[in-house]
Amino acid sequence: MSFHANAATIIEAGQLSTDQQQIDENATEQSVSKTSAVSCANCLKEKAKNEKMHEQLFQRQEQMLAKIDELQKSVFALKEGHSLIISAVENQFSSLETKLDNKINELLNSNTALIGVQKDMQKSVNRFIGPDYSELRKMYSNCWDCAACHSDLAISDSASNNAPLNKAQRKPDRKTVVVKHNGKNSGFCSVFAKMSIPNESFFYYEVTIVHKHFDFGIHIGFATKQMPLHSCVGCHEGSYAYDDNGKFLGGGALLDGTSGQQSTSAPGSTRDCASAIDGTPSLDVGDIVGCGVNRRVGGRITYTLNGKRLGSVNISANASSSELFPCVSLCWPGDKIEANFGPVFKHPQRLL
Predict the structure, then answer these.
(1) 106: left (phi over 0), alpha (psi -120 to 50) or beta
(2) More confident of the two residues 347 and 168
(3) Beta bridge partners of 288
(4) Which of 109, 129, 149 is the last residue of a domain?
(5) Looking at per-residue confidence, does 319 or 161 come out higher?
(6) Where are the coiled-coil regions (predicted)?
(7) C-beta atoms surrounding 111 within 10 Å
């Protein structure tokens, strides 16, 4: 083989080697390019994924911000409502406080007025009963005097079925007792209270008609101890009475129930001296006669029937300084009365 032929072979072999190298380089470049493309694709996917996540996070952030804004608005609304409630409560409290102050002032004014009325009433009471309340206690501690009682009269306790009281039972503290005519024959029999009526004060007692036989024969009033027990209260000098026939009597004279002066009618006549009172003021079973004496106004005796004022009579000048005692006279056997010296009366409004 010639030199040229070898040289050509060598050149050809070198050319082939260069081509193969170029092919390998191209293959390598293609492989790198492919790898780069895959890597880029992955990067793009990752980027897209990250962008999507970022967008989702942004949306969530926007939602959270919106919720926070809504919550803030709710808080503001609650604060505003709370402020309104506080303001309303404060206004209401202020209004109630004002009303309470006004009511307290009104009550204080009313109390002041009541105190004034009470003082006026106390002055009136003091003028009436006087400063010495022992006289008032004396009024309520009175009772029938068994030692100043006619023998034909029986005194019994109204709380013990009207059983007659023996001497041991006749205590001076009995306030409500029954007096009955137990005699065999008719005739006035009288009983006195243990204590006289207070001087410079007032006195009141009540008598209930329990039983009566005729239209006359029961006298209720006041008398001095000079009157005999067989006499009749209202018919003896220095005594005053209202009888069950509807007459005011004083010292044996018929008195006018309006003026309290002696009537022009003869003593013992049947003239009704209380004709100004509606109806017939005679006494029936169950009637309650109130007898009151006020010695602070010149000495007047006032009678009531079942709480209704009948009239008043003046105590005579001669008897005004005498000791007057509550006194009841019964004429007919079987006549019965119940006396009450207080302090609880059936018609206490007539006390004054």
Answers:
(1) alpha
(2) 347
(3) 208
(4) 129
(5) 319
(6) 54-106
(7) 11
